[in-house]
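In response to reviewer comment 3 from the previous cycle, which asked for concrete evidence that the modeling workflow produces usable outputs, we include below a single protein chain processed end to end. The sequence was submitted unchanged, and the resulting structure tokens are shown without manual editing.
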Amino acid sequence: MFSGASNLAEGVDKAFLFIFIIAFVFITGISAFMIYTVIHFSRKKGKKPMQFSNNIRLEILWTIVPLVLVMLMFWMGWKGFVPMRRVPPNAMQVTAIGRMWEWEFDYGNGVRSKELVLPINKPVKINLVSEDVNHSLFIPAFRVKEDVVPGYENYLWFTPNYIGNYEILCTEYCGLLHSAMTSKTRIVDQEEFDRWLEELKAASNKPEPEGLTLLRNTGCLACHSVDGTKLVGPSFKGLYGTQRKVLSGTIEKDVTADDAYIINSVYNPNDEIVSGYPKGVMKSYKELLKESDITIITDYLKTLNEGDNK
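The workflow returned the following structure tokens.
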């Protein structure tokens, strides 16, 4: 009857269904009883009103029944919760790093990924780290959610049951772009995972371009992707030298994304807003980036137009 994307989903779903059924029965029964009493005991001519009190049986009944039901709900919830804190000794270790406003996953030895890729049917322990404010890692399909708090050691674990892609969300309000703090969990077979991890290791061993490092360190990649993914702001992939439709005040116009456009976008981000994106989200980076830094970033953006990135 119960089948979820992880080994923990069944316990959570059973507890939810049990509580839902109890709530449904009570709200239906109480509503029906209220309607009955309103009709049956409504004021009528020639009928003398009566007052009832001191019904010991009724008082015992409405004390014992809720107590039993609450204890049963606690038991169902406890049965689902306990396995969530018992990590198998052979669990794979991954560290989830939360920062405004993105997730990053560390597989050890400096190997990091923006998406969580895991092999099917293998337990994994996700160690939770925040670099700034409170976050909360939530993977709905796996029924797992834990707070990610600076300076606090926390974790979650699960065993994925099905190959596929699953949403990752942040469920702790962490600032202006909280709703954009999303990622993906990709569950693959062991062979594909091993191949992906080797490719990631090889890529991690290459020195990172200085422009990419500047983008990362200034938080630009929280709102702009380098792979074409649409985030809060336009992607940097294929940006340089292309025509952009922007809104300048109330006037819509076409501009070329050249050096001057990029400098103005960094220093005066609300002068020309790319169509389809909100105004007032980005603040000026005059205090963070010198023009020489922007030149380095621009040189990196040009590489995103080469080859397959064109």
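The mean pLDDT is 88. We consider this sufficient to address the reviewer's concern, and the full set will be provided in the supplementary archive.
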